[in-house]
Amino acid sequence: MIGMTNGASAVWQGQQATYFIEDKDDHIYNSLVKAIVEHRLLPGSKLPEEALAETFGVSRTGIRRVLQRLAAVQLVTQLPKRGAQVATPGQDEAAHVFQTRKMLECANLPQVIAHCSEDHLLAMEEIVAQEQQAHRDQDGAAAIRLSASFHVQLQAIAGNQVLTEMVSLLTLRSSLVIAVYGSPWQQGCRCHDHSDLLTLLRAKDSAALADHLSRHFDDIVANLQFDQGANEAPDFAHIFAATASRESL
In this predicted structure, what is the pLDDT of residue 238? Predict the structure, then answer.
């Protein structure tokens, strides 16, 4: 099992990636990250301390700590006298996030292939199967989560914890990009691409795998739409009541 205890993490837990750290504010932090990743808290959504404190039953000081942590991983922006809101990446940042992912993830593929075992392949196939089911069920939140999990777990195979941590953080920022600029049908990645990537991984075809992954990122960027409108204010009580009843990542 690959694990990280400081900062964002990507841990082999059979099928899931987790981005979270151990701290007394974990429940709130994890709930907010999950809501952002799953597009239930959209970019630009205001995050007033008082409303969040009431929702989670904690002090504003506790909420402030969590918002500072989210700002540190660039999921939240904090402006003087304007408070906190979910980050809204600009067009250049959106393109750079995926360019960086393409460089990192493609460059690491030879190490992924070198360390890949049958157990890894079976776990990845399970992620793809669940992702395909999420698309059939039109479960956008699950599709987004599983799409990110596929990429993080693929890179985790190589055993480079530093790189895997970087990729896990970039998948969070990718979710923001897709929330702002994605097409209405764009829920994570196209799962048939992930199936094709697994076929090439099993064949240990490094060149074809890198080419396919590179085109995968290019296709995501090509489908972004840079003319999205503003979002309505979030209903925290509704969002986090649903979160509390579901399994955590």
Answer: 65
CA dihedral sign of residues 100, 95, 229, 139: negative
Strand partners, 85: 46, 77
- Partner residues linked to 16 by β-bridges: 13
Instruction: State the pLDDT at residue 246.
Output: 43
Q: What is the mean pLDDT of each run of 10 residues along the chain (249 residues)?
A: 37 43 72 89 93 92 94 92 92 94 97 97 95 88 89 96 94 90 62 89 95 94 72 64 48
Tell me if the pTM is above 0.85: no
The Cα–Cα gap between 190 and 23 comes to: 34
Q: How far apart are CA 47 and CA 207, in angstroms?
A: 45
Give 17-39 as a DSSP string.
Answer: ------STTHHHHHHHHHHHHTT
What single string gives the DSSP state of each residue in 55-73? HHTS-HHHHHHHHHHHHHT
Within 13 Å of residue 140, how many CA atoms lie on the same side as its CB? 15
Q: Which residues contact 130 (CB under 8 A, 6 or more apart)?
A: 15, 142, 146
Are the C-beta atoms of 146 and 134 separated by less than 8 Å? yes
**Tell me, what DSSP letter sits at residue 176?**
H
Residue 71: how many CB atoms within 10 A of its CB?
Answer: 14
CA distance linking residue 52 with residue 69, whole number of Å:
15
Rounded to an integer, what distance in angstroms lies between the CA atom of residue 47 and that of residue 213?
35
At residue 37's C-alpha, the angle toward residues 142 and 199, to 5°, is: 55
Of the candidates 35, 39, 33, the one whose C-alpha atom is nearest the C-alpha of residue 181 is: 39
Task: For the chain, give the number of residues.
Answer: 249
